[in-house]
């Protein structure tokens, strides 16, 4: 049975409103896209589409885990997470763990993997 294997690649960089408004990283990303297309073609893959979405850090209580650098949303500060908004639904930890759940423990903002199990957002207590 023939099938299409569609592969997604997620990556991120940190930016701010001024850079977004001035499009200061557009040239760099266009060069990256060209190199990615060539690299994918080398391995027999065809680039189809990409997009860039912006997650406002303070508004969403999003950050990098203080221990491991996983992207996370501090659920102690933002219990609603993305509110299941379509724009970000694929980033949700329920789907593919691009942005992990996390919380605050002893003054550190930690992702669900770094939190102790007994913390509400610790790995083994999520979804239970
Ligand atoms: Zn972590």
Automatic annotation (TrEMBL):
Protein name: Uncharacterized protein
Species this protein is from: Pleionea litopenaei
